[in-house]
Structures are given as structure tokens and as C-alpha cells.
Predict the structure of LacI family transcriptional regulator.
Amino acid sequence: MKGISIKDIAKQAGVSPTTVSFVLNGKAKEKRISDQVSKKIQKIAARLKYKPNQLARGLRTGKTKTIGLIVEDIANNFFASLAKVVEDEADKYGYKVLYGSTEDNTEKAKGLLEVLKYRQVDGYIITPTKNLDKEIELLETAAKPIVLMDRYFPHVNSHYVVLDNFKGAYDATSHLVKQGYKKIAIVTIASDQTQMKDRLDGYIAALKDHQVPFSKTLVKRLPFELDREKFNNEIKKFLTSVKGLDAVFFATNYLGIYGIESIRSLGWQIGKEIGLVGFDDHDLFRLHSPSITCVSQPIGEIGKKIVEVLMKELNQPSDVPQQIVLPPELIIRESSKLA
Amino acid sequence: MKGISIKDIAKQAGVSPTTVSFVLNGKAKEKRISDQVSKKIQKIAARLKYKPNQLARGLRTGKTKTIGLIVEDIANNFFASLAKVVEDEADKYGYKVLYGSTEDNTEKAKGLLEVLKYRQVDGYIITPTKNLDKEIELLETAAKPIVLMDRYFPHVNSHYVVLDNFKGAYDATSHLVKQGYKKIAIVTIASDQTQMKDRLDGYIAALKDHQVPFSKTLVKRLPFELDREKFNNEIKKFLTSVKGLDAVFFATNYLGIYGIESIRSLGWQIGKEIGLVGFDDHDLFRLHSPSITCVSQPIGEIGKKIVEVLMKELNQPSDVPQQIVLPPELIIRESSKLA
DNA sequence: ACGCTGGGCTAAATCGATATAGCATTTTTT
DNA sequence: AAAAAATGCTATATCGATTTAGCCCAGCGT
């Protein structure tokens, strides 16, 4: 069951494979192939349902029409939804997607990059782990475009599409303050990457701007690798340790979920006894009782922008990095209604 | 920035590319290459970090070490989680995954198959849409292994890995009966595919076995393509139309979610006024108040089996189809506690 | 000394598409 | 009418790895 090759068409049309190639690549005019021959070839190609062998083409041209998508965790709702958008958008340009999850593990990320590299993807969409900056810079010298997402390296001059995480956290915290909460904590991931740093900074800035006293004891930073039980235990331990605490901002979607679980197992009333804001929207946040206020990312727009940036670079690489920061939306629900 | 090729190694070792190829493919013995030369080549290859160009290899051998994964919707928690398992498992065998979502649309599915075919994937993992049986059979003649998942075609003799959907629905329904619910409805997707048919059959069989009267008015079948609002409206309309209704079984994860939303907007008390069982576990089901009883699929095991079956076929195709049916687990929570 | 066997390796073809260089004609220019 | 230019197409090399056929040499038997 071999496919139709350019040779088959050439034979049927009584011309050389070269001519067929020219015609099918739209170079008929440029290469001065007559309209007659050109049309004949088109017709035969259509009739035989010719599809170029991407391997052969890729081998010769170095282009595989494939992009690599590296996310933190494809099972996480945010990344899965984004992956779908990316897939759909890429498809519009004729690109397919190879994906992988890093689990926020740099070694795994390096492994993925390695594989994608020798699979010759044309470009990369990467949710970087920390310390991946070296690899990224190295990769950039290979002239394959890279678009970072969700986070980036401030000292690396790369393309990226991210959320305005500072604003997201700032708005969330300001909202809690305005609602009347007095002592607002943040539970975040122990990471110095931009997305986490910005969220923490936004939280702190909002407190400052509203003259709410800030203290380091209000910040809990947890390692990414914990399992559910450990997350819950740590969160409970922290929440009960802060005296007078009346609101908490969870800086990632899964922390929010663990947070809800923890608070409930403590028997506290979400909203009244303790205000709560999560990150990224989720069916759980929408349908929980009480429903959960959250900072929502415009997933569709993010995905579109990512692919748009990548395609632009693929077609006409520029020296100026495209750095796009999209605004979050604060979705206000019951969990941040004091009384 | 070109990669290291077999020629570079050959040059450094002072042998021909052929020899290098033999050695690196483990055919040293068979092809009678001396241990000396063999070791030398190995060493050089390791030092240069040689990685074979998959395009060139694929072009020559017809094997791309890539598998195609077609799911219904990668943004759906169940499929996303499964995709991750599949990716991890496939990686162990050195395979990468190209994926796509059908949205349960046969035309989209055909398009995906087309693309994957001319991308020369070595094998397929497919969540088929209805009427895709023709394409699947056609594809099978191409000697590329195919494993169906989640659902299958009874009249097509293919490999598959699915859940025992009948048992899942049977157990869920029996559980509701034993809890004392008297009038139990089912909300499902209007689809004649096996997974949906089996769930409906399991529901009906359980009612019969427990001598609970069944009537067609207890069954609501909704089209897949509705949006959230329409789903909610339809569900509400249905639930209020059944007199004496006191429990409902939602046959897919998203229907369960819409179900919760609908019931709440009707102001009914889940558990007491209306028993509820969902399908597939979800953070929402676990953390909802009251928590939601559901039929849970063993995602890890399913993913592992799928890849295992596919790899077996890839290495030594057999005539007997491997058809695997895994047991569901009923997770009992508060939504099915009467009083 | 001649043929035969087996060990150790390599030349060349191949997969399918593309890019480069260039070969006949015909047409235009001067 | 000779030179130059344009037209319309093709032969061949190439991407990198694999595979087939087979070369050369040493050692063995007779």
C-alpha cells in the first residue's frame, strides 16, 4: 500500500518529476511551465489524490510542518484547553503538533527538547521549567523559532505570550481588600519563574497600595512536586498558623482546588469566615457552593496569539522579539463575598 | 546547525557509513563486524551524541516511530488524562504522539486520519466517531495497526480497549435502587455507539433485575453538539417533565456537570430530593457539596493497555484481535444518599 | 597450486521530493 | 543573418539512513 508519488504523476502526464514538483509547488509561472502542462498535472494530481510524502519533503527541505508543544502538564485543564486551541490554530496553517509534558522537571524538559529536535520540528512552543534558559538560548541559535508561553526568562530576549500575572494577582487582592477582608494570605508555588513571581508581586503591591500591612508570614510557597495529601496538609498547617487570617489567594488552579479541599476539611465557611480567590477558571470554581472567585486567563486568545507569533517567525523571522502580555479577567463569585 | 550524521561517524572511525549503520542498529554480529570496529563506532557515536535523523530513516524504512492519537476532545478531562498516560507509555518504547480532536464529528475524524496517514504514523489509537467504521476497515488493510478506545464497532474485528460500560451503568443504577430511589432517569448522549448503548443497556438491565418499572419517558438522549446553555435547558425541561422523579444517572462526565448545574438552578436538593450519579471522576464531583457519586474509569490502566496492545501489534502483528474490557469502579459519595 | 569457505567490510541503490544547472528550441534584437 | 534572449522543460545531485549485493583476503582441504 504505497502512496502516489510524484513519479506516478510524471509518468501519467508524460513529463519529468521536476516539472511536476514545480507545478505542485506553485512555481509554474516562475519556472515557465506552460499552462497546458500545468493544468494537466494539476488534474492528474487531483485525480490520484496525491499527497506529498512529508518525510521526503522534510528530508530535503528541512521543514517538517510540525511544531513541538511543551506544556507543564497536559492533564491540567488549563494546558489541555490551550493545547486544543493551539492544535486547531496550527492546523489552519497546515501544521501538526507533537506534544509533551514536563511535570515542571527540567530534566524531562531537556529530554523533550532533545526528541523534538531530532524529530526536526520547525518551531517550538514551550512552557519553560526553571534553568531551561540555557537550552532555550542554544536552541535559538539553531534558527528554529521558539515561543515561550505562560512564563519567560527576563534576561533572555525571546518571543513569548503570557498573561499579565501581576495584574491578575493585583486585581484579585485588591478585590479582597475592597470586600473588607483584613488579613489576606497567598498560597503559591515555590518557584522563581516569572508567572509565580509576578503573581506574588502583584499580591504584595495591591496590599501596599491599599495600606494593608504585609508580612512574610502571609506567604506560603509550596514545592510543585507534592501529592494531593501533602498539599492539603501543608495548606491546612499554614492556614491555621496565621492568626486573624480571613482571606487567601491561591496562585494556581490546582492550588485553588487543594485549597478548597483543605478549608472545607477544616470546617471553615468559605466566603464568610475566609475569603478565597483562585487562579484560572474551572467547572469546580463555577459550580462549587459557594462558587469561587478567580482570575481567568483568556485561553482562546492566548492560543491564537501563540500560533500567530510562531507562524510569523516561521515565515519571516525578525530580530525584534514579539512579546505579548494579555490581560486577565477577574470573575467575581461568592467565595469573596464577606457576609 | 546540522546534526551529526552517520557519515561524520564513518569518517572519524575510518569506516564506511554502511558499517556504522550496521553497528548502531545492533546488527554487528549478524553482519560480522569485528568487536574492535564495533566498539570504536559505538564510542564515537556516543561522544558525538549521534541521533539518527528520523526523517531519513522513516523515508527508507517506512517507520516513523510516531503514533497518531485521535480523541473526542483533548480539552475534556478524561481524554486529556488519558493522553498523558499514552504519551508517557509510548515514550517508553521510543514513540512520539501526534494528536487530534474529532469533536465527535466524522468529517473532522476523516480529516485527521488523512493527515496522520500521509504523515506516515506507524499506528493509530482512535476514539471513533459514528460511521468511521468504513475508514477504519480501509486503514486496516494498509497494515498499520489500529487500536480503538472508549468505543468500538461490534461488526468490525479490530483491536480495542474499552471500559465495561454496561457494568458501570448497571452498578450505578443498582446502587441508586438499593439506596431507595424509586424513579430513576438517565440522561445520555443521542448516539448509537457502543459506549453509550452499553450504558443505556446497563441502566435498563439494572432496573429490570430489581423489578423497578422502566419506561421510555425516563430516558433523555441529547445531541452532542449542544452548547452549555442548551444542555442546561434541555436537562431542566426533561427533569421537570418526569413526574415523581427522584434520581438521575448522567452517562458522561460533561452531562454530569451540566446536570449538577441544571438541578441546582431548579433549586432541588441533590441527594435528598434527587439522587445523582455521574460518569468519570472529576475534581468537581469530589468537592461538590454534596459530593457526587460516579462511575470511575481506570485511566492509568486503560492508557497502559492501549499502548501495550498497539506495541504488540507493531512488533508482531497477529490475526486475533486483542479486545480488552476493563472494569469500572463505582465511587459512592453523598449525591446518592437518600435522607 | 587450486578451489572453496567464511570473515570483515564496502559500493551503490533506494526511499520521495526539491534545487541547481543547463539543454534544446524558438523568438527577438540589431 | 548572426547574436542574444526568452521559452519550456529535464537530468542529476541531494537530504540521511538502510539494504542488497558483492569484493577482497586468509585459511583450509586435497
